[in-house]
Amino acid sequence: MPYLKNTWYMFGHSHEVTTEAFRNRTIADETLLVYRKTDNTLAAIHDLCPHRFVPLHKGRQIGDIIQCGYHGLEFGADGRCVKSPVAGSPISKSACVRSYPVVERDTIIWVWVGEPEKADENLLPDYSFLTEPNRRNVGGYLHTKANYQLSADNLLDLTHVQFVHESLQASEAFERAEIRVEQDEDSVTSYLTFPNGRPSVVFQNFLDPEVPLDLVFEMRWNLPSCLRLKVTGNPPGEPENQQFETMSAHIVSPETEQTSHYFYINSRTTELDNPEKDEALRAWQEQGFIQEDKPMLEAQQRYIGDRDLMSLNPLGLKADAAAVRARRMLAERIAEEGQG
Amino acid sequence: MPYLKNTWYMFGHSHEVTTEAFRNRTIADETLLVYRKTDNTLAAIHDLCPHRFVPLHKGRQIGDIIQCGYHGLEFGADGRCVKSPVAGSPISKSACVRSYPVVERDTIIWVWVGEPEKADENLLPDYSFLTEPNRRNVGGYLHTKANYQLSADNLLDLTHVQFVHESLQASEAFERAEIRVEQDEDSVTSYLTFPNGRPSVVFQNFLDPEVPLDLVFEMRWNLPSCLRLKVTGNPPGEPENQQFETMSAHIVSPETEQTSHYFYINSRTTELDNPEKDEALRAWQEQGFIQEDKPMLEAQQRYIGDRDLMSLNPLGLKADAAAVRARRMLAERIAEEGQG
Amino acid sequence: MPYLKNTWYMFGHSHEVTTEAFRNRTIADETLLVYRKTDNTLAAIHDLCPHRFVPLHKGRQIGDIIQCGYHGLEFGADGRCVKSPVAGSPISKSACVRSYPVVERDTIIWVWVGEPEKADENLLPDYSFLTEPNRRNVGGYLHTKANYQLSADNLLDLTHVQFVHESLQASEAFERAEIRVEQDEDSVTSYLTFPNGRPSVVFQNFLDPEVPLDLVFEMRWNLPSCLRLKVTGNPPGEPENQQFETMSAHIVSPETEQTSHYFYINSRTTELDNPEKDEALRAWQEQGFIQEDKPMLEAQQRYIGDRDLMSLNPLGLKADAAAVRARRMLAERIAEEGQG
Q: Which CATH number describes the domain made up of C128-339?
């Protein structure tokens, strides 16, 4: 399936690109080089020298330009060649690489691989919670040898935590779980509620394991594959009496048809100045993903290969509703774009 | 070339599947999960959850059912889904995985990947020697990145031991070797005789290296790729006066077109209670295969690729007779099946 | 693109093939086995037994014949089968492997994979400097996962040393560099001159870093991909007053479409009996290639894949002139051969 082109894809975390270190990543089959200019703003150019086709990330940044590491051609942030290697070689006007709209917001670097004139910051999904006061974020990156939509499916059907993340997250209320799905123009939100259940192990470091509560997992999906999880807990039947709330971002960008980038940002309102807490949360997120989710996703991908999941007639379950709607919404947008 | 479908393939050794540990293997491109139920009988089902296409071997066995490790669907030995993950999700009648006939006989687990109604235990090749009294068996498993028929060729032309396994098995009678082939409806048997020769190194731990004998290697091949080796020795010209006999099973199952499973079972009538002998025989079988046969087979496969050996017009030698007949018999059965 | 067939390809260095150790390499998709007969001359045969298609290099050399390691067929230097494994198997006249013209000259082993009757030693490129008196050669071999023409491009445009090999070879005269290209029927020669510049780091172990000189890199390319580099230095404007000259061979043979063999021979006229100098030169050549050139070439290849570089419309620079002429000459010869 083709990619949605006129959309923002997460390229990386703000802290991943500095004036000392650029970064290359492939997004939706486009090889990109993103670097931070001396004024601290970002530039995104095609990571490929048009002379002999080596990646520009093998070169180096000199001020605001990128110099190819093979024969020294230099390119500016707009992609134009500003210097050619040997005196006497005229710089052709056609000597340029493609440049891409790039935006930095809420600690996230977004790139637009579609038509540049359509790039619209109003289309950015809302991750403003990340920059609210009195929060501490821990962000990370993990690579997956699986299509990005398989990762989105995984996140949109959190019943999987009962099995995939059983040791820390299985709930004794699982059999009573309630699922509700909402949808608007650009997003799908899944609510998974474990009513009147004892907290699973992962919550027992701040909740009494013997006191039942209503636990709600609210997973919001935005086009193309940007998710936000809010988990809230309250005494059974007292939603107004919220005891805790945790927020996190889970954003998946396609690298190729069969590989993807998974970015997570865990955001907390307690122990803000405790670096050990940072590391504990990072370890929890990464080990859970690497040891438990990723092997599932990659096993799916090996089976599915270059086919589309839905073309294989998967058995449908109630818990798939959100993932199926998100897939459908994305497929429709891609189809519209193809006709447009 | 397609596989013969209506036939028994060795899936594994009996000891490889217990009530505590199931096993997954791909046989003729079918991914199978074989598990042992609480009554000790076996079940074989497709190793793929029809919901989101993860292998069921990533889940777990609970009594007589298999629970998918992703979202918890449960399947019985007949392949029918008996439980769906979240209360309220009805179990569709179509929610099932394929199940396969599976038989356990003579310490071997056999599976049938063709039409289930044609599965007939009378078609099992005879390995009853393995369960005769006063024998001790040592069985193992080795994987090969080569088509299963190349392994069968290797076993059916034992003149290769003179070169491939020279240090232990080369015979000074090699130049006088005699080859004879017999054939019936389902089997081909090759007799390779080294007349009046001194025993090769491997026999010298129980034979006098200076006393010549007639040595006969009888290799029986059964459809699809099941071999049994009997080696006998006797004073020159006195076949009735047999000095020793050793038996072994060598069974090759296709995994994919270009990879295969090799199972061996060395069966002896001496030193039955000597575990050091077990380990010595295992080491001899496995080192010989891994260091000497497997590199040859895999080099052949790399050259042959997705072509058929016979389509490459191999130079024919007298010693190929048994392998060529076996290939022809198998090809005829596959062709018949395609028409049937 | 097809290979030029009626041409000499470097197979290896003379010292790589001894009567004790043959060598197999794939040249232009032909798997070759080259061995040294007891009279010290060379033989080159197809590295593939026609019986069961194992490579002959898995066998062994016995005198002037090669014995297959699987079932013992024996082949002579002309490729004819001279012995078949089991007594009674007649040797078919058609039992032979292809043999190839092979020549050893100037410490280089050359093979001809085209029509044998066209093999002509007069077509060998001139590397006679290697066997002039009072020289000491250090030769080596490096494998590259890149098409051989990408290596030739690299060598024919030495402006790359300014960037790829910056730490040792960047010249402060780079901006003033002059490029000149000559061409005759079978060769292209590029002259890159750094006028009136201080020697780069690599020359400072025998040149005064403060004294400017004219430095000329003369790179001669012969069909199909055989290069010779001569570097000379003289006081500015005094070419007749040559201060030093170094010579080296850089020969690239295609292995497959996307991989190649790079052979270098560094030849010096000083410190002839100093083995430490040998090792220093070897280390310099190999580290420079492995750490600096090879990653560039392999990154190009990954992007180019199975396409032809020129079909991708590379941006043309003045410094490409020699490489472009060499590619054109080779393409023309290949086209002529296809029609012939």
A: 3.90.380.10
